[in-house]
Amino acid sequence: MLRIGYHLSIAGSLDLAFDRGAAIGCTAMQIFVSNPRGWEVKEPIATVVKDFREKREKLDILPVCHMPYLPNLASTKEETYNKSILSLEKNLRICDELGIKYLITHLGSHLGKGKKVGLESVVNALETVSKSLGGVTILLENQAGHANSIGARLEDLAEIHGGSSLAKNGRLGFCLDTCHLFAAGYDIRTEKAWDEIDRTLGLEKVHALHMNDAKFELGSGRDRHDNIGRGFVGETGFAVMMKNKKITSKILILETPPNPELAEGEEMDLLRSLYGQ
Ligand code: ZN
Ligand code: MN
Ligand code: MN
After folding, report:
1. Which one-letter DSSP state was computed for residue 32?
2. Does an H or E element contain 176, and which?
3. Which of 179, 212, 221, 224 has its CA 20 to 30 A from that of 7?
């Protein structure tokens, strides 16, 4: 069975994401556990944790969590860096409480200080939070390659993984975003590109993928998601991926934009049909 679903809203209460997912047939989902556009991370109250865990048991939907957008683990500004670590620690704690196994994070921006400094900063940040992991594994997400961002080149992700003690304990892995890969110049419509990705990163370390089409052409460097089959990756591109067991065995999450022409769940069903399910 495919583990597939959408990034879902937690409006109202964290546990309501399960209901939204169940209504459209998700077997996986991604949520934020704190305000995605703020620094504040509020611990959920006990009844919400209880409801979340109960629905998790009852409904066959595997939840993963995405970090908010403001934290920047590659930052060389002390205040931002410290706040980012605090946010990561709090998100880890909440995930652990809720029984969420994977927390996905971007690496951030080196703010013009250079890639080397940024990569070191990320490795240090991961060391710092290693005591707060609980049962959670951190997944580093590849980026589209906008200015000063870290993590568009898979070699860089591999370097961080190699330099981190978390990796040795199996507590660090990757989440690959297909739109970001394509924007960074990896032609994921071809099997050849996936072989290269496997060689560079090791697909066994990838636990989740963000399945997004791309609004701009190969190598654009632009992070603009499109609906599955409507962008430059296209249905034939996704067909290649959905025939690859090294991909379909992972948790697949759609982060595609709302589109009034598409029914809820329709893109997920398209991926399922390309898989042959
Ligand atoms: Zn992301
Ligand atoms: Mn993504
Ligand atoms: Mn994106």
Report:
1. -
2. strand 172-177
3. 221
